[in-house]
Amino acid sequence: MNREIVKYLLLVVVVLFIPLLVHEGYMLNVMVFVGIHAMLALALNLLLGYAGQISLGQAGFFGLGAYVSGILTTSFNLDPWIAMIIAAIFVTLLAFVIGFPILKLKGHYLAMATLGLGIIIYIVFNEAVDHTGGPSGLSGIPNLKIAGIVFDNDLKNYFLIWGFTLVSIGLSLNLVHSRIGRALRSIHDSEVAARVMGVNARILKVQIFALSACISAVAGSLYAHTMTFIAPASFGFNFSVELVTMVIIGGLASIYGSILGAALLTMLPELLRTFQDYDIIVYGLLLIVMTMYMPGGLVNGIPAVFSRLKGKSKREGGGDA
Amino acid sequence: MELSDQIAQYLLSGLSTGAIYALIGIGFAIIYNSTDIINFAQGELVMLGGMFTLFFMEKMKLPLPVSILLAVLATIGCGALFERLTIRPLKSPTPLGLIIITIGGSILIRGIVMLVWDKDTHSLPAFSGSEPILIGSATILPQHLWIFALTAVAIAANKLFFQYTITGKAMRACAVNRRAAGLVGIDVRRMVFFSFAISGGLGSLAGIIVAPLTMTSYDVGVMLGLKGFCAAIIGGLTGGVGTVLGGLLLGILESLGAGLISSGYKDAIAFIILLLILFIRPQGLFGRAQTDRV
Amino acid sequence: MLEVVGITQRFGGITALDDITFTAAKGDITGVIGPNGAGKTTLFNIVTGLYTQTSGTVILDGADISRLPAEKLASKGLVRTFQNIELFASMTVLENVMLGLHSRSSSGILACMGKMPWHLKEEQRIRSEALKWLDFCGIAELAEQKASSLSFGKGRFLEIARAMAVGPVIMLMDEPAAGLNNRETGELASLIRKIRDTGVTVILVEHDMELVMDICDRIIVLNLGKKLAEGTPREIQENPAVIAAYLGEG
Fold first, then answer.
1. Which C residues 146-185 touch A at CB under 8 Å?
2. Is residue A295 part of a domain?
3. CATH, residue A81
4. Is pLDDT at B100 greater than 80 in this prediction?
5. Is residue A119 part of a domain?
6. Is residue A314 situated within a structural domain?
7. pLDDT at B174 (0 to 100)
8. What average pLDDT score do residues B205-222 get?
């Protein structure tokens, strides 16, 4: 447990340190996105990595959070914080209700059903023009403010977003190291044995699905209030796939892996500007190659490669590995 | 136009898109039955059909029928290659791994097509003009007739292949029980390879015959693929009549929904049907109850 | 006390179990034996809620548990082990046993996320009790190892430790000696007796006749889905119908 606390504090220090290196401009904006994506990847990993249930509709919950927040603050003049809470509750309840029938499905069927759900939500964003502004989007969403501070520039947003991200990480770490976390992994390892031990797999899956949707919705609200403009294109199927890629690359069932995956996939296209639209080729290749050759993701794959190298050199040195 | 005339018109166009969905759906079912894989890259094979035809016509200046033939062959090659490079090397495939690999494959194919061609939409010429034909009070384009005819031919050929050829029978054996098929000497991996090739062929044909009506671009595969999957689910993921009926039903519902309710939500109809079927009757409307489907 | 009354199970046209009735008395070790295909594992799967029987009832200490799903049975004190040990491979040995205490702990998602004081206290109780059961089964020194790294024999003992952590009144063991060597089988026999001595009723399906005759108080013999005989080990050994069934099978 102590090692966990040290790791977490190390992350906090890194997060606090980054603005000293990049305190303005484009890269800081990118770092804000890394924070949002990290929350989303984390939420998906709880479901995909720990409970072993795929969702290809995460972008839909992200979008719902953003749109509910956006609509409540622009059309109904609600305080952004209140809007954010309502959005989170609404999306959590929605996911809970849909969760029961949808999580009865397994494997490919679950993938297709969540994909369908995501696309339905996406279509609603586009078509409910009166409320969402349709394909051209919703603008003029107010910034969050607290005690006189308005979160209206990249530096303030950086601290706002990463504050939420760090809290999400902390809560998730607590969760995965608890009886619930063990129960989730047990379903993944052997559902039949888990049931015999009294784990109600069905309810637990639905709860995690709802929790995952809730975190995604909060990320969506934060996105809406920091960008002040949202459009359906950010919440489509491609983004859902991008989130899955982040989780797979970082490492399934690894909280820190999700952060790593989100950071890599968010910064990579920014660093390699030439990729532009062709980043989907890189995603596609990464998904295939990682699944085939490093199914544990970078977090597990890199140490494995190192220990293999170490094992080899030890053996060559005559020692027993 | 009277309402009944309108409905007749919607039914006709619904049937023709439905035929397309059926073709794609059968491709899904063939792969699923021989491998338990839902090939998320199926839609991309459909897209490749249209794009290859375009390539052979515009870049190679070949006549349309030759281009179509070459495009189907090229897509069959792509389907087979995809299986060889990604599915076969897997040592211990898990459902999650397979989902992710085929999704990876689909975006990779999409990305490559975007890189090699462009992001624009292209049109393919209609096979025999675009002079509307009057049927009763509804009109129909010659291309619709081509769609009906070619779909019927493809489904019939498919049926004959599975019913009468030794390879087709072997593939059906794999669908029933892969282990037993392996034990009696059927090369199961070869059959998996064939299933990808065949559904590449059916998918590309669907992509080609629909392209003159709807245009084609690097990203048309996503929606077409998903709707084909929906058709297959309605049909209970069987390669036969169920999926054809599923496709036609979906096409008609979509066309009626778009015409009578809202065209903007047209695409949502397929997915709502998909979810309802998966929730309520996962064995499909025309399938018999089978428990391990979910 | 577990009462099985008139259990019948049909799969399509096949009758896997035909009107099986027997009682496992409290504190007894009851053996269920029979040739391959006799329906022993099917019977286990019905009693433990993994299958739903065509007809018949299962009664645990007077309460009808026939239609309860597997996950509801742990809190009723009914638990089982599996023929091909089903461990949680990604977890440590200790965590496996800690999972056994799942049904006897209650912290929800929010309490776990927020590290509420009552949750932390509960977590401590889970840990110390899990260690106790590891010790009980003689594998305490393996606590921090990955479950996937255990030998088959050690895995079997871990599975039993995990089942004991559930706090069972009755434990069903599906071929516990399968895959064990002689020494391990000996250890298993004394462990099963030790479990019985804590007051737990044990029912086991087993092919190792020496073990069954050695530790069981009562034996039920199944053949082709029907109950063939029931009695003490001595009675069973002398029962001509049982001998015929076994010899007939080769």
1. 162, 166
2. no
3. 1.10.3470
4. yes
5. yes
6. no
7. 85
8. 89
Residues of A in contact with C72 (CB under 8 A): 198
- Neighbour subunits, B (≥3 Cβ pairs < 8 A): A
Number of domains in chain A: 1
- Whether chains C and B touch (3+ CB pairs under 8 A) is answered by no
The domains located in chain B, with CATH, are: 10-124+140-287 (1.10.3470)
* Cβ(A178)–Cβ(C121) below 8 Å: no
Taking each helix axis from N to C terminus, what angle separates A107-127 and B221-234, rounded to the nearest 10 degrees?
Answer: 120
Q: Which residues of B touch A108 (CB under 8 A)?
A: 32, 36-38, 95, 98-99
Please report residues of A whose CB lies closer than 8 A to that of B291: none
**Residue A273: its pLDDT value, please?**
61
Long-range contacts of C117-121 (CB under 8 A, 24+ apart): C119/A178
Q: Hey, what are C144's tokens?
A: 């921090």
Give the closest residue to B274 by CA, choosing from B244, B292, B253.
B253
pTM: 0.88
Copy the structure tokens of residue A45.
Answer: 């990993």
- The total domain count for chain C is 1
Inter-chain residue contact B229 with A104, CB threshold 8 Å? no
CB of A256 within 8 Å of any CB in chain B? Answer: no
Residues of chain A with pLDDT under 50: 316-321
State the average pLDDT for chain B: 87
Whether residue A304 lies inside any domain: the answer is no
Residue-range definition of the domain harbouring residue A167: 2-279
pLDDT score of A313: 57
CATH number, residue C205: 3.40.50.300
Range list of β-strands (E), chain C? 2-11, 14-24, 29-33, 55-60, 63-64, 78-81, 170-174, 201-205, 218-223, 226-231
Instruction: Enter the ipTM.
Output: 0.89
Residues of A in contact with C113 (CB under 8 A): 171-172, 174-175
Find, in chain C, the residue whose alpha carbon is nearest to that of A178: C112
> CA A141 to CA A230: how far, in whole Å?
9
The pLDDT of residue B214 is 86
Distance from CA of C125 to the nearest CA of A (A): 12
The listed range with the strongest mean pLDDT (A101-110, B137-146, C198-207) is C198-207
pLDDT band at C198 (very low <50, low <70, confident <90, very high): very high
What pLDDT was estimated at residue B288?
Answer: 56
What residue numbers bound the domain in which C229 lies?
2-249
Q: What pLDDT is recorded for position A272?
A: 64
